[in-house]
Amino acid sequence: MQGQTDTGAETVHSSSSTTRSSNPQPHIVIVGGGIIGCTTAYYILDALRSRTLEASYASLSFPPSSVDSNTNPQPKVTLLEASIHGPAQGASGKAGGLLAKWAYPHELVDVSFSQHQALAERHNGKDRWGFRFVKCGSWEGEVPGDDGDEEEEGEGYSGNKASGRRLPKDLLWLRESLTHSWSPLSSSDLKADTPSELAQAQVHPYEFTTAMLELAKDMGLEYVQGRVTDIVVQPSGKGTQEVTGVQYLSPSTGSAAQSLDATHVLITAGAWSPSILSSMKGSRVRLPIKGSRAHSVTFRPPSPSIPVAPYIVFTQAARKRKSSKRQRITTTSSSPDDSPFGDPEIYARPTNEIYACGATDNSVPFPITVDDVQVDSKACARIVRDVGRIMDVKALATNQLGEGGHNVVSLEELVHREQACYLPVVTSGVEGPIVGEAKSIANGLYLGVGHTCWGICNAPGTAKALTELILDGEIRCADLSALDPSRFLQ
């Protein structure tokens, strides 16, 4: 949608004639209110707060001579989010929240993990978004009911019962009788004397994302609800294009398009980023990202006084070979009862909650917005079934002293939420994410997209890198040349 729509919708304000040099105020517009967008807004405003007005304008390509501290406003940062329900409605609110030193790409992880620690220390992340160090391991065992076997419930099921305890002594919510092996995903965890030496930590993604947004608002961020329909560009006079604004639709104005002038536009819309780029008038650039739907289920013990040991578990049926732990994309069966064990990932959270997710699928058309994501009840039922096969439900209803008395018969009784989201997967054959300025499209257009299942982990590193690039013209925190948009755009 460019200016006037085909239906004759009125354009409230057009930015098509605005140039960066004539705009009296630098304006950074971030498209997408997920974890990358909200965290980047925080980092940009935090960096600007420590600079003089002259330095801020100069870093955003405004000549110092044009700055008058008496008349020039501070650089402006606006975040646009399409969902009518607010920020973090996609993967940023429905992911597991694992932070791992062994995640990928390593050059981004090295920055992100330490930044997560720093943010938690600075803003009480322990209480605000559940930051804590955790142990993470790979569980392999006998799965009752898999491959057509009859499932046997309760403690009477022995399977290939191991001699002696294989699980960590405090990991009581998995069934020891089914366990063949347990191994930490990082060998360094075996040498860790304190939690802070562990190779993994976790956050609650929704709480982290919304906290970043609120902290950014406290520093002056403007939050706008609207679905972007066009990124406005114009010739820069140097044989290239430059961004001058964005157009969007807001629920408050119906079909009337609204516009924002912009000197810098950052796209952080996850799986919806390709549709935003393709909406640009005359654009033939294809962003190689595909959304892959992932379902998850959360469970809560019947009493908040019953602790859930802090472990993240990657599961595997003993008779099956597990694919890469980085990402498993398969098509699930139509019935939750006739499909094999789906190797769910299980996350204990500090809120006394357990999160579990299964394989991803692409069985339905990709939705127009995050608010249109469909939740497949059968996919969630498979997750509940698989987790219930290996979890000691009784342990979730009884504390470690054997007290509780809660008459929980099945895991289904502890289900709290069933949900789905889309992971943004890079499809070009080059490992993402995509982080940097998309100069081949327009100067001033930046991308922070394609983080697959590691968006929560890599959000602070991405935010720090983009902040340095936007404000200082180069990324200094790490060598992210392998993630530059020029390697991905077609």
TrEMBL record:
<feature type="compositionally biased region" description="Acidic residues">
    <location>
        <begin position="143"/>
        <end position="155"/>
    </location>
</feature>
<protein>
    <submittedName>
        <fullName>FAD dependent oxidoreductase</fullName>
    </submittedName>
</protein>
<feature type="compositionally biased region" description="Basic residues">
    <location>
        <begin position="319"/>
        <end position="328"/>
    </location>
</feature>
<dbReference type="InterPro" id="IPR036188">
    <property type="entry name" value="FAD/NAD-bd_sf"/>
</dbReference>
<feature type="region of interest" description="Disordered">
    <location>
        <begin position="142"/>
        <end position="163"/>
    </location>
</feature>
<dbReference type="Pfam" id="PF01266">
    <property type="entry name" value="DAO"/>
</dbReference>
<feature type="region of interest" description="Disordered">
    <location>
        <begin position="319"/>
        <end position="345"/>
    </location>
</feature>
<feature type="domain" description="FAD dependent oxidoreductase">
    <location>
        <begin position="28"/>
        <end position="469"/>
    </location>
</feature>
<feature type="region of interest" description="Disordered">
    <location>
        <begin position="1"/>
        <end position="26"/>
    </location>
</feature>
<dbReference type="GO" id="GO:0005829">
    <property type="term" value="C:cytosol"/>
</dbReference>
<dbReference type="GO" id="GO:0042147">
    <property type="term" value="P:retrograde transport, endosome to Golgi"/>
</dbReference>
<dbReference type="InterPro" id="IPR006076">
    <property type="entry name" value="FAD-dep_OxRdtase"/>
</dbReference>
<feature type="compositionally biased region" description="Low complexity">
    <location>
        <begin position="329"/>
        <end position="344"/>
    </location>
</feature>
<dbReference type="GO" id="GO:0005770">
    <property type="term" value="C:late endosome"/>
</dbReference>
